[in-house]
Amino acid sequence: LKTLYISSGINAEYGESPFQKASLPTATLLKNPPGMMAPGAGQMMPSSGGKRKEIYKYDAPFTLYAMSWSNRPDKKYRLALGSFIEEYSNKVQIIQLTDEENGEFKVKGSFDHPYPTTKILWIPDTKGVCPDLLATSGDYLRIWKVSENSGEVKLESLLNNNKNSDFCAPLTSFDWNELDPNLVGTSSIDTTCTIWGLETGQAIGRIDNNSVTGMVRTQLIAHDKEVFDIAFSRAGGGRDIFASVGADGSVRMFDLRHLEHSTIIYEDAQQQPLLRLCWNKQDPNYLATMATDGLEVIILDVRVPCTPVATLKNHTACVNGIAWAPHSSCHICSADDQQALIWDIQQMPRPIDDPILAYRADGEINQVQWAAGQPDWIAICYNQSMEILRV
């Protein structure tokens, strides 16, 4: 993929974005301007202008997989990272960029976790009025609370819907409802999705020292095979509609108000398992999904079911992650082997041939997250490294 370098409209106090503009056939390949990243280097070259870095890198003591940006406005540049160690004992670290000048991350907290986390999410609290809660999925759904003063992390609740057996069906993913943080939905290999209601005795935004408990709001058989992902939509008020994908190769949409039926909005022609889905943050008519070992991202319009409205194909290896821009309805980031690509889909339904920006990492990217509270920043994980990149 040929590339040319642009500043992406970065404020003058910053250096240029580490993302490179993907060239059109008529574009000219430019030489590296001062302070720009060399192709494939994964690091910023020194700049004589004294501008702040546009890539910050953290090296963990273990292989990384799950990752989540904190949503609180008073906790900028804070992320939670989950280890991927193929044994029972795993870790979750909470880190924060504390020194922008030198790019120093500080570990704010750490706790043990049974098995690798399949997903991590901070409570969707963009105003900083809720308790500092963190959720993880693996064998069970767990809710953790971070102390405001000491940073100590305490397990608040372990949510288990299978109390009649010593065995559990592992959770593949979950989602925390952004409009109603009392609702959390999980997906499992046992073909079900479960909607949990978190209870504290008060509204969750007013928790003081009360412990968090949970009760099952509903559990449904969502697919014919394993369910791999679940996500709430902002449609219909943003509380009741969610979708799931699974090993049967379908995307199914549900409404908590009418669970007697669901809508199949897409089925993979080759019946390949669909691994992830992600709703557009600004336009709830659109969602993205990806298939096992697939080299493309599938964009769906729920108003036109069954047929993709766009397919993003310019990947050199199987897609490992997708993330919509939190502030734009027409930008989405995807990650494959060593590339993070940003696409502009506003010309749909006309074909979208190339991404507009690209970044090459030093390893296989297995996770990409676009910060909701800091939309200029994207985080990626590969091997034991986490990088945040300014767009």
Which strand order does the major sheet show?
1-2-27-26-25-24
Label the overall shape.
globular
DSSP strand content: 35-45%
Rounded to the nearest angstrom, the distance between the terminal CA atoms is 19 Å
The chain-level structural class is mainly beta
Number of strands: 30
Helical amount: under 10%
Q: Would you tell me the overall average pLDDT?
A: 84
Sheet of most strands: 6 strands, antiparallel
Radius of gyration: 21 Å
Low-confidence stretches: 1-14, 23-50, 201-209
DSSP helical segment count: 0
- Strand/helix succession: EEEEEEEEEEEEEEEEEEEEEEEEEEEEEE
Description:
This protein is an all-beta fold and 391 residues long. It contains no helices and 30 strands.
Element layout with pairings:
Layout: E1 3-4, E2 20-22, E3 55-59, E4 64-69, E5 78-83, E6 89-99, E7 104-114, E8 119-122, E9 133-137, E10 141-146, E11 153-159, E12 171-176, E13 183-188, E14 192-199, E15 213-221, E16 227-232, E17 241-246, E18 250-255, E19 263-267, E20 274-279, E21 286-291, E22 297-301, E23 310-312, E24 321-324, E25 331-335, E26 339-344, E27 357-360, E28 365-370, E29 377-382, E30 385-390
Antiparallel strand pairs: 1-2, 2-27, 3-30, 4-5, 5-6, 6-7, 8-9, 9-10, 10-11, 12-13, 13-14, 14-15, 16-17, 17-18, 18-19, 20-21, 21-22, 22-23, 24-25, 25-26, 26-27, 28-29, 29-30
Give structural attributes.
391 residues; mainly beta; 6-stranded antiparallel beta sheet; 4-stranded antiparallel beta sheet; disordered N terminus
